[in-house]
Specification:
With 224 residues, the chain is α+β, with helices and mostly antiparallel strands. It contains ten helices and four strands. Strand 3 and strand 4 form a beta hairpin. Helix 4 runs parallel beside helix 6. Bound molecules: glutathione.
Length: 224
């Protein structure tokens, strides 16, 4: 019998959060183990080929890459959160990759040392938001009525954008846009709200403020 899956986590990692959301949506009984990525334990280094979280331990197997972990979770815990049609499913996988790129652009924007690097990442992000705006339908979710793995993939990004906007708004999307509406739907879900620790807003905000970056100087300037 397969034992309870164990998800190896770092508290503010958006990629881990994607898998937590999927596990919660599917009501899977799982265990979360937190590690310090700045000082990873020996056992983690041994099982994580890229040294990254998330890793999902299923019995003696260590799965890595959030999109792959979510595909696995989806397959073994029906009903599926993917479209049944092969072409739609492939398209959904492509947009999950797109979401990963957005998460990295958002992160690069946060850590950018100067105004040029910051603006460069921000422009890329704004362009990606515009691309999303073009392909989104009436909602409430990416594929319409049903929550899918694309929603799980984007929710962590929207949660971070939303939290940071409270400190120093970047206006990445218009209030009445489809992206804004989609973001609002996802952030309000129990599976998304419960996918982070209760102190997440504080911990994430502290992390961003502690960065030696262009954006953190903006945040600090508004806090005084
Ligand atoms: N493509 C990976 C990205 C995972 C990732 O970048 N995780 C970060 C934390 S959010 C990490 O473990 N970084 C440690 C490192 O790069 O050494 C996924 O989707 O799982």
């Amino acid at each position: 019998m397969t034992r309870k899956p164990v998800l190896i986590s770092f508290s503010i990692c958006p990629f881990v959060q994607r898998s937590v959301i999927t596990l919660l949506e599917k009501k899977v009984d799982f265990k979360l183990t937190y590690i310090d990525l700045n000082n990873p334990p020996e056992w983690f280094v041994k099982i994580s080929p890229l040294g990254k979280v998330p890793v999902l331990k299923v019995d003696d197997v260590a799965l890595f890459e959030s999109a792959v972990i979510n595909e696995y979770l989806d397959e073994v815990n029906p009903p599926t959160l993917h479209p049944v049609d092969s072409l739609l499913r492939a398209q959904n996988r492509a947009w999950i990759e797109f979401g990963s790129d957005m998460i990295m652009n958002h992160y690069n924007m946060m850590i950018a040392r100067d105004s040029d690097a910051f603006t460069n990442s921000k422009n890329r992000l704004v362009h990606q938001v515009e691309q999303l705006e073009q392909i989104l339908g009436e909602g409430p979710y990416f594929n319409g009525e049903g929550f899918s793995l694309v929603d799980a993939a984007f929710a962590p990004l929207f949660m971070r954008i939303d939290l940071l906007d409270e400190r120093f708004p970047l206006n990445l999307y218009q209030i009445n846009s489809r992206v804004a509406r989609w973001s609002g739907e996802l952030i309000a879900l129990d599976s998304v709200r419960n996918s982070v620790t209760p102190d997440f807003a504080e911990v994430y905000s502290r992390f961003v403020t502690s960065l030696d970056s262009y954006y953190s100087t903006k945040i600090k300037a508004t806090s005084v």
